[in-house]
Amino acid sequence: MSAPRINPSILAADFVNMQAELGRISGADFVHVDVMDNHFVPNLTFGPQMVERVQATSPVPLDVHLMIDDPDRWAPGYAELGAASVTFHLEAAAEPVALARRLRQIGARAGVAIKPGTSEEPLLELLHEFDQILVMTVEPGFGGQSFMPETMPKLARLADAARRVDSAVWLQVDGGIARGTIEQAASAGADTFVAGSAVFGAEDPDAAIAGLRAQAAGAMAHRH
Ligand code: DX5
Ligand code: ZN
After folding, report:
1. Spatial separation of the C-alpha atoms in residues 136 and 210, rounded to whole Å
2. Cβ(32)–Cβ(8) below 8 Å
């Protein structure tokens, strides 16, 4: 079993002090970067220019989460910037498998995300096409929302399917992940945890990362 990965989301960081904020999460596994286009979700963040600067500034590799329409057109550009992983939404992609193959070809880990209301079913037979699957644990668009436990059965079914075919796919959760919820997600099968407010809202973000990692590791060790 791999160690849990903790990916702080800079959506919860101070945007005008991003360099200093990045310096407070040196213990992170990946920096989670939420790109929103105000169409796929009702919020707007930033695009490739910002991602390029974060990439150049951060010693920690980037995990880009695209909450945008038409990822078939835009996602490859983020991989070309050097992001370690690029995750697009299944709901928005016209050709998800072709897009994932393209991302891998460029050299990024290929990720696919599903919203709380989207079934995991079509992904069960496609695990080999992706390096990571993101099960959203809130409606995408905003930080600071409450974790939705009703998404856990989807995660458990993906984890079961991955175990059956001995898949190396990473299972990621994003939204409301904190001290009170991370164990639930780890028990259900997650191995990669995005946390925004729980990390940047803490006095010491690196200590918060370590605390979350220890909690997740404990729950993962008890998984059957
Ligand atoms: C929500 C974003 C998340 C968000 C999580 O649409 O995808 O990455 O930053 O924030 P918290 O951890 O505060 O729920
Ligand atoms: Zn995200």
Report:
1. 22
2. yes
Active-site residue 72, yes or no? no
Mean pLDDT of the chain: 97
Mutating to test ligand 1, I would choose from 197, 199, 200, 212 the residue with most ligand atoms within 8 A of its C-beta, which is 197
Long-range contacts of 121-127 (CB under 8 A, 24+ apart): 122/90, 123/90, 123/158, 124/157, 124/158, 124/161, 126/96, 126/97, 127/158, 127/161, 127/162, 127/165, 127/167, 127/169
How far, in Å, CA of 101 to CA of 119, rounded?
22
Q: What is the pLDDT of residues 166-198, one digit of tens each?
A: 999 999 999 999 999 999 999 999 999 999 999
Round to whole Å and give the CA distance between 36 and 181.
Answer: 25
Residue with tokens 């945007």, as numbered in its chain: 15
pLDDT tens per residue, range 210-221: 999 999 999 999
The best mutation among 36, 138, 139, 199 to test binding of ligand 1, ranked by most ligand atoms within 8 Å of the C-beta, falls on 138
Q: Is the pLDDT of residue 1 over 80?
A: no
Pocket of ligand 1 (CB under 6 A): 9, 11-12, 32, 34, 65, 138, 140-145, 174-177, 194-198
The Cβ of residue 133 has, within 10 Å, a number of other Cβ atoms equal to 27
Q: Rounded to the nearest whole angstrom, what is the distance from the C-alpha of residue 219 to the centroid of ligand 2? A: 22
